[in-house]
């Protein structure tokens, strides 16, 4: 994806790694389907744990029902859970 393997150019990966870029100072929602076979949920858990060390306002929602791409389908239950969270947490500007 980035034109190199992690061991080839660790600096390139650190520059784009969300965990290495913390803190962000914004409210974050991390959605992760525990049925995701492409990205393991442990990565999201580690990210949230690290973000909390910076006192980030962050929430992790895990669901065993969803896989990697399910949140991108606007008619899916995964997408509906995201929209519900946004309704509750969106602030009027």
Q: How are the secondary structure elements laid out?
A:
Layout: H1 10-16, H2 18-21, E1 28-33, H3 41-53, E2 58-63, H4 77-89
Parallel strand pairs: 1-2
Secondary-structure element series = HHEHEH
Largest sheet: 2 strands, parallel
Question: Structural class of the helix and strand makeup?
Answer: alpha+beta
* Beginning-to-end CA distance, first to last residue: 37 Å
Account of the protein in words:
The protein is α+β, with helices and mostly antiparallel strands. It has a single domain (10-89), classed as Rossmann fold (3-Layer(aba) Sandwich), CATH 3.40.50. The chain is 40% helix and 13% strand. It has helices at 10-16, 18-21, 41-53, 77-89, and strands at residues 28-33, 58-63. The protein has a two-stranded parallel sheet with strand order 1-2. β1 (28-33), α3 (41-53) and β2 (58-63) form a beta-alpha-beta unit. The radius of gyration is 15 Å and the shape is globular. The model has no long low-confidence stretch (mean pLDDT 85).
Compact description:
The chain is an alpha+beta fold and 93 residues long. The chain has four helices and two strands; from the N terminus they run ααβαβα.
Could you list some keywords that capture this structure?
Rossmann fold; alpha+beta; two-stranded parallel ribbon; 4 helices; 93 residues
